[in-house]
């Protein structure tokens, strides 16, 4: 197979050189975070800090370090205006609001509860453009995202990217410190035989989710007429990556317990980028009522219900909600 590096791929696919530059900065951040994750025990970076993030969650040392890496790698980029990070309450302005300048929304370390148990974690990001010179216009609109992606720090480190038309996956080659295209045109398999949901929340679910999961669990003799397997990694990146490779559906629905907060997962740097990726890979993504990328953000850390994966499952769940 011809070896295509991320740099060569971006020169062909990013459209604007400035966007290619920004994605290189993000890739460089992900490479650094991959190294930090690899040596976290050796460097004494396991356990928790005394710091609390904007969501009231105790931060891990690597949540903070990974955020600093993103800021360092990306804020030197002259075309970037603003950073929206899971770990920072306020939007960080690195350059004045200017029409057309980039906005980067990111989750520096996703699934960070997995760090101390040496399971996969990741980073998630979405790039949009400021629609005017007004700082009021900074919150991305899902339909206008330029690019979304994630890095997964697993047995290998991968970067998965979309500009909206297809999804391409790159693997970090440690011998050259470059990302190499290894998974071109990733597609969500249309037939799902796996679902991912945190079953410990079952008592809080609404009737639609109760009956969807119960039908999956009935297997071949139930209404779905096939057996489903279940996986839950507590890292959205790892669950979405599995769905892109092997198929299935991921659910973190709004439920009776998280409803007051609007759900669990964050719209701008978890749900929206993953929705763009899954849709570009031929799958579907909904909050139960409307496509996830149509959910309007009114605050940077807004939460949402998330259901995404194989098209057929999403259609089924959406029909059940309506
Ligand atoms: P983060 O580590 O960035 O806070 O994200 C964790 C998210 C998501 O990755 C995962 O699917 C979910 O929270 C796990 O939730 P549970 O703790 O309910 O399993
Ligand atoms: Mn996360
Ligand atoms: Mn995180």
Overview of the molecule:
By secondary structure, this protein is an alpha+beta fold. The protein has 2 domains: 6-183, Fructose-1,6-Bisphosphatase, Chain A, domain 1 (2-Layer Sandwich); 194-321, D-Maltodextrin-Binding Protein, domain 2. It has 7 helices and 15 strands. An 8-stranded mixed sheet has the order 2-1-3-4-5-6-7-8, with helices on both faces. A 5-stranded mixed sheet has the order 10-9-11-15-13, sandwiched between helices. Strands 12-14 form a two-stranded antiparallel ribbon. The longest helix is centred in the N-terminal third of the chain and has 22 residues, at 17-38. The chain is globular, with a radius of gyration of 19 Å. 46% of the residues are buried. The model has no long low-confidence stretch (mean pLDDT 96). One manganese (II) ion binds next to strand 3.
CATH homologous superfamily descriptor of the largest domain: Fructose-1,6-Bisphosphatase, subunit A, domain 1
Query: Which CATH architecture of the largest domain would you pick?
Result: 2-Layer Sandwich
What is the mean pLDDT? 96
Beta-sheet strand percentage? 15-25%
Number of extended strands: 15
- What count of helical segments does DSSP give? 7
Distance between the termini: 46 Å
Q: What sort of overall outline do the alpha carbons produce when their principal axes are compared?
A: globular
Total domains: 2
- Helix and strand pattern: HHHEEEEEEEEEHEHEEHEEEH
Helix content: 25-40%
CATH topology of the largest domain: Fructose-1,6-Bisphosphatase, Chain A, domain 1
Largest sheet: 8 strands, mixed
- Residue ranges: pLDDT <50 for 5 or more in a row? none
